[in-house]
Amino acid sequence: MMRFPRLIISALRGGAGKTVLSIGMVSAWKQRGISVAPYKKGPDYIDAGWLALAAGRNCYNLDTFLIDQENILNSFLSHTSEGDIGVIEGNRGLYDGIDTEGITSTAELAKLLKCPVVLCIDCTKSTRTMAAAVLGCVKFDPDVRIEGVVLNRVAGSRHENVLRKNIEYHCGIPVVGAIPKLRKQSFPERHMGLVPTPEHQWAKDSIEAAAQMAEKYLDFDALERIVSRQSSVVSRQLPVVSGQLPVVSRQLPVVSGQSPVVSRQSSVAADNGQLTTDNGQLTKIGIIRDSAFQFYYPENIEAIIAAGAEVVWISALKDKSLPPVSGLYIGGGFPETHAEELAENSGFRKELKAAAESGLPIYAECGGLMYLGEELVLKGKTYPMTGVLPLVFGFCERPQGHGYTVVEVDRGNPYFKVGTEIRGHEFHYSEVLKWRGNDNDLVFSMKRGAGLINRRDGVCYKNILATYTHIHALGMPFWARNMIKCAEKWNGR
User: Fold this and answer.
1) Closest among 331, 333, 329 to 352, alpha carbons compared
2) Catalytic residue among 137, 366, 460, 486
3) Active site residue 366
């Protein structure tokens, strides 16, 4: 049994400022010489990318809808070392979940990890009422340990004093910080989240600004008292779910920002042995990761490596040709903001299409799905993509798919057995303008979520599977191995 100082940053609602608070807290602790293990609750890539940049290490996902509780604990214990402070950013409001029992809520995760909660509250145009709101959260579920409050968007010292006195008097909880309304917007928003870190060069300046804000307005002595009052969580010797790959504890390149286009070989073997080519080398899996395609859970990349593959980083924006690989993984991102650059890199697009037609195994999610289509239509202008799939995409002002998904695999494909139920999530503003394929080529039936078209998703063509649904490898334990088996089969053709 081991101690892991930890806390969850939560709020009464989304948009209260907990992401910038979490980034500032993590960065400030790091500058103080304290090692921070960052985590994100909820399906999210962008906030996790900022937290990873602030901590200088990967940010892992702790989502109880995508991952079962045993693997949540396994992941937390595997990625938190002695001496670390685990900082977990919640999502939405503390008790917001998918049902009346609060399933998938941040509160549920806090109870699972026996983790104290610090509430970040937006105090705009409010004083004593905030004490009532905090007290309501305290009384709503006594098993949730709310141990601190950060006042955000405070109008001045008088406003702060009234808020502080009322919360500490009525709730018996210390106020551990008071942040004024910040004039400078260091974290511009895109869609419903922060702009991804790879999209601008001043991300480190933003992190530094957040750290300075945290140092100036947070009481770190009080925060460290909160995270130090921990009882043991669970033993490190957690059983691994049957069929689940072990969590890889060594650090990969941080999944937040530009990555070098290099090959990386794993020393971790799959439980059925490493998959090698005829010349004895590990099977190479290409991963397209640049500022257009950046949405990858570190766990997914680790699962590919743990299954016995060598990862080759690729850029669809800068690389002029497709390197020799036996499989390809294209994650989500914002291809629409890079449509012109993607279209101009015609040599790469043509090589990718030729490889796809030859049977190269490709797994694509959301942005990757759009890149495999024929065209992107933006504001009346058309940009050619790879043309692998008979799809044309346009874009809307409102999300066309947003939230958790549950899909049933009801047709054959190279990656999932028929009858498999997949839990994932979707978030996209794109819509299908043209679909010239056959609905029999869509192998997923949507039980929850929007999907691609006609309540279906998962375009399967040759060895390609492209879908709006993002998956998490800890929730789909056989995905990586099946992908590499498909690559090995194609490689030995």
Assistant:
1) 329
2) 366
3) yes
